[in-house]
Amino acid sequence: MELTCPHCGAKIPAGSKFCPQCGQRLTPEAELTCPHCGAQIPAESKFCPQCGGALEEGAELAKPKPKRAKRPGIREQIKTKGFFNWALDTLGSIRLTIPLLVIITLAAAVGGIIPQAPHTPNANLLYHSYGSFWYNIIKFFLLDDVFHSWWFLALMGLFSINLIICMVRRLRGSIKLLAAPLQPLSRVSAEGAAVASFQGRSLEEAREAARHVLRKRRFRFREEGEQLFGERWRWSRLGPDLAHLGILIILVGGLLGIFKFSGYISLNDTELGKVFPPCSAEQQTECLKKADFGIKVDSFRAERYPDSMMYKGYWTTLTVIDNGKEVKTKEIRVNDPLTYRGISFYQTNYGDDLNSAEATIAVEDRKSGKSLGEFKVKVGERFQIPGSEEWVEFSHFFTSFYYGKNGPININTPEPQNPAAFLQLYQGTGDLAKPDYWDITFANFPETHLNQDKPYKFYLKDYFVPKLDGISYSRNPGYHVVWWGFVTMMIGLFGVFYLAPRRAWVLLDPPKGRALIKGGQRLSWGGKHELERIAREFERELKGEGKGKGG
Amino acid sequence: MLSNGVLFFNIAVIGYLLSFFLYLFSLIFKRVRLGRAGSIVLLIGFAAQMLGLLLRTIDIKMFSVTDTYEALIFYSWVFVLAYLVIELLYRGIWQRLRLVGMFIAISAFGMIAAAASPLFSAETHPLIPALQSYWLALHVSCTIVGEGFFAVAFVTSFLFLLFERRKQQGGDPPISLELLDDISYKAVAIGFPFFTLGGLFFGAIWAKHAWGSYWSWDPKETFMLVTWLVYVLYLHMRVRYGWRERRAAWIAVIGFILALFTFAGVNFLLSGLHSYT
Lengths: 551, 277
Hints:
Chain A is α+β, with helices and mostly antiparallel strands.
């Protein structure tokens, strides 16, 4: 349907609020008045966005209002509807949904860009990267933890209320619509209809052809007088209702996430067979939080791709110990956890237990080249260089040392690629808190030394690193709720977009020898196109061409 | 190792370029038949690319969406698929779609060409443990199927905005604006359920299986949600608020830019759980 702009006379699309030609605001001739609540609503609506009442097609309500009525003020609305109804209408209005969605979208975008807790860089770094002004803004609006901030949760709460009211109202409309059988059109006009001719054919032939076409297009139809009318995929009218219900279920599941917990246990291959019991009042580490059973790590292993520096996979065999009995054993791997009483155990990492590394460090006097001895130390231990006041701390070990963007890192490779020991040197006997200088020594490059001006050379002679296995565990009672929410939402979404409900009326007009094919209100371009296609098929059917193709 | 698939990707890239020129000449010289030839060549390129994807899938024993190169190839394939679906839906008036087809063909050509650039490696490589899951195939492929349709909506919305301006200046659009608007809506409507299924639902299930938490507010997840919300806005604005044409076209354009950012930008600019390369 096209309108004419009252200001400049241009042809403009229906539903426009402003003329695209002259920019003038339009007196919305296309606006309707809801027969249930009296609200002004866009033309061709199926449901009233204010009260959710269904607007029947072909009914008399499509009476254009001659003049744009101003939206009554809040006070006036409260007076006419009562406070409760006004609040309900406002909270359930699409006018609230749109800004809410926009704000939630923007908030999520901000949360996606600014690193969020617990991954937030420390306050200092944040201050330096954003400057004092933005730092204060971030801290004031809690932008480094948007998704747990009170205002975001309040927004989500408001959104849920909006969704619930909209959903209930829409559902009421849908049920009314589904309960009432489709009615024949009371007024017959050719406007917006596709026209097919059946001149020279009898009414009965035309009727049979129309039945054929509608059946082929999977319409369920009735006949009354000279009208055939029916619907296709009528149940998918519930699609949006299901999708919205799904979102609500997901939000409920998300809320149940407040009862979730998670933890992490790790051990190296010198500790196999270790049992992690449930945490007690005394024992808070190396135990399972909120569990009433224990878990034993029997063994773990890794496999590498042949001729590659990559792990193919890593596996851990776990045994559940409940009431002193071994009840379940499973070999877990990444993407395949073990679940017992709602708690799932995930293979999280595997690699070298660098903190438990042992190394033999040889010290040499730079000037004389004389060996000052070899020292076997663990990470974190110190030794004194004989005949001096200097202490050496073996502070870090690397199996595959790599100098990255943010300093030295260790790459997790199956075989050591570049073993290195990081050493810190301390002077004197008193306060050994602040290292004097540091040094690093590589097993593969023994003659690489950092400090040419210092009196000692260090060599990494020998080392031993156990393998580390890391397992995280968690329980989230909301997960299954979220899962069902998604299933509900997906049924709704595929229903509404893939099985779009359609209505069609075929009006046979014997005096003129023509059939008018009309569709529901608010037809899209494609909907109109389908009416046109029905008309052509109808004509083909009459000529007897359509008989061959299924019927 | 170089997969045999690459040969077929090369055939596809030539096909798409040829198809572009056929559409172009069809429009310039007003020969409808050339346009049909363009569609047929596009279909041949599409079939070749599908064969290539199939071979690569057999080679790596995992659906071929495991790195940026493969994702880009699959993306361009879905993009053409989405256009072919649209052409099927509008088969009665396919002649009027030639201009859209021309843009699709050259964009698909550009995407494969970009994938073949030295920025990405065409060699196959083994999968790290975290990616060894059939959820990888489901999660990535469904999301990209959705995005492929969004990409078509982007092209038609972009053309809409372009020609609407021309029409305002008194020119004559070479393609019906109403048709462009309708294709945009259809493409978003077809893509949206897949985008939701792959991006949010399958993503959540996989995250639960691999990381132990179905949602972690990781930057990629967050931007996935942002993109999703923009398309939710598109659908509601259109269906409930009567926003069509220009304003709807702008939302579709913004939505697709966000989808692209989620697909590629997040990994380069922000760090998080989804950093696999």
